[in-house]
Amino acid sequence: MTKIKDVVRALEQYAPPAYQEAYDNALLQVGDPEATVNRVLVTLDCTEEVVEEAIERGCNLIVAHHPVIFKALKSLTGRTPVERTLLKALKHQIAIFACHTNLDHVHNGVNAKLCEKLGIENTRILAPKSNLLTKLEFFVPVEDTEKVLEAVHAAGAGQIGEYTDCSFRITGTGRFTPSSQANPHIGQTGKTEETIENRIEVIFPSFKQNQVMRALLKAHPYEEVAHFLIELENENQEVGAGMIGELETALTAEEFAQHLKKQLNLITFKHTAWPDKLIKKVAVCGGAGSFLLSKAKAAGADVFVTADLKYHEFFEANSKMALVDVGHYESEVYTKELFYDILTKTFSNFAVDLSATNTNPVRHS
Ligand SMILES: [Zn+2]
């Protein structure tokens, strides 16, 4: 039996909540985390219609990209669409979980899905985030090194891109005098001791600090573990906004427009004048991406595909890079397929349904 909290944990492992924007509200928003999951409905938005769909399908958990509770609620009376959605979910004991900007920011998240839809390869994060990594240095007797390293690796330290179990070490002499109250692993109280130790350096995502430290202290033989924790300014190449990559074959503007319409199922889309060259390098950002305009330009994109561009922002395109606004819903609707993939790969004892409700409030005539 899988509980709601198990599904939440799996999705939060994939897209750590620590990677969401400060303004965001990505978490379990409605429901009892201890309840058993019957069936899950995955969707871009959680509207009243989506809750109705969940009721019809017998789903007691809705996983949505956009948080239904985004602004503070002051009442719950059914006065607004959000309040009605929540009341209906509560009445039918349906939980609602939102996985939002944290899923935008992971390298295998919303933008990776958009790139996959558009056949964009050799991708990298367009605007990697910094200040998300911590370095741990610790000192350990040579003979205990492997055991302690194994423990901190298992807790999430030492991963750099496609490389795991990364560490660096220098062997030297540790010197200490245990007090009369101490219970030393090596040496005697009141007597200065010298021992051969390794100084180990590993890095880890800062949000894993507690688990890494717990693992270190548990596996280390010393009563007092000498260590340094250093916050790094480095960029984390695997976490950030937008994505850039290349089409397998360069396309003419006309071909690219057709490709975009076909792959994203568009009726129409807005764009600036196409560059006077074949389109090969494409930057994307699902949802509102105008804040990445200069990054996309600097990265040499031929086209930047995003949504929610304002009139004056379209003027920021130039002869080298066209701006494309496909619509917010259209750029992110495939996020539900991402939820579907993650959940069906992780769990086999309940069904996951892709919502069939079109939640796009925008119509094209
Ligand atoms: Zn969005």
Distinct small molecules bound, one entry per kind: zinc ion
Elements, N to C (H/E):
HEEHEHEHHEEHEEHEEHEEHEHEHHE
Specify the CATH class of the largest domain. Answer: Alpha Beta
The quaternary state of the protein chains shown equals single chain
Number of discrete domains: 3
Strand content: 25-35%
What general outline do the C-alpha atoms trace? globular
Radius of gyration: 25 Å
Largest sheet: 6 strands, mixed
What is the residue-mean pLDDT, rounded to a whole number? 97
Give an account of the 3D structure.
With 365 residues, the chain is α/β, with parallel strands linked by helices. It folds into three domains: 4-103 and 334-354, 3-Layer(aba) Sandwich (Udp-n-acetylmuramoylalanyl-d-glutamate--2,6- Diaminopimelate Ligase, Chain: A, domain 1); 106-127 and 240-326, 3-Layer(aba) Sandwich (Udp-n-acetylmuramoylalanyl-d-glutamate--2,6- Diaminopimelate Ligase, Chain: A, domain 1); 132-232, Alpha-Beta Plaits, CATH 3.30.70. It has helices at 4-14, 48-57, 81-91, 101-105, 110-118, 145-154, 209-219, 253-264, 293-298, 311-314, 328-332, 335-346, and strands at residues 28-30, 39-43, 61-64, 95-98, 120-130, 133-141, 168-176, 193-205, 227-232, 235-251, 270-271, 279-288, 303-307, 322-325, 351-354. Helix 1 (4-14) crosses helix 12, helix 2 (48-57) runs parallel beside helix 3 (81-91) and helix 6 packs antiparallel against helix 7. The model has no long low-confidence stretch (mean pLDDT 97). The structure holds zinc ion. The site of zinc ion (ZN) has 4 residues, from helix 11.
